[in-house]
Amino acid sequence: QAVPAGSHVQLNLQTGQTQAKLPDRENGESDTREKRRRKRYIHARHWVGWAVDVDANSFTSEELKKALAKMKENEKAERKVSFLKQCTVRKKFRPIEQLKEEFEKLNMKIETDYEIMVKLISKFNSSASTLDEKVAALYDLEYYVHQV
Asked: Which InterPro entries match (predicted)?
């Protein structure tokens, strides 16, 4: 969404909206709180933008209904795009269970980081482990925890 030069722009992290405030008057005088409240903000969400007057008395119920319907349509479109992206990613990769089965057929065992960390912790807690084995387990565990 294009905004006039010199506008104050901020990103609202709670709503995910970008807001732009029109600049103060040219002579540098700041507006009163009421005038600032009535200034227009431009909300942009992804590729769709719309201007909203903050004064609640300036909206008709029909305008509000249309704006709400447009927001719902945009949300549905975003969900559809997100779902399609997830589907394409899933087509590129196979589940870990299927990979494990294929590697077992090749006499190779694949372990996840979690499984390796559980083994290292049990080796460290084992009374049968020597001091050198426990130290080695701690070093290896440090590596895997750092990955997480």
From this structure: Hsp70_NEF-Inhibitors (IPR050693)
DSSP class per residue in 15-47? TTEEEEEPPPPTT-PPPPHHHHHHSEEEEEETT
* Domain-located, residue 89: yes
Q: What is the pLDDT of residues 68-114, one digit of tens each?
A: 888 888 888 888 888 888 888 878 888 888 888 888 888 887 788 89
Q: Are 44 and 1 in contact (CB under 8 A)?
A: yes
* Domain range enclosing 84: 60-107
Work out whether the CA dihedral 127, 133, 135, 137 comes out positive or negative: negative
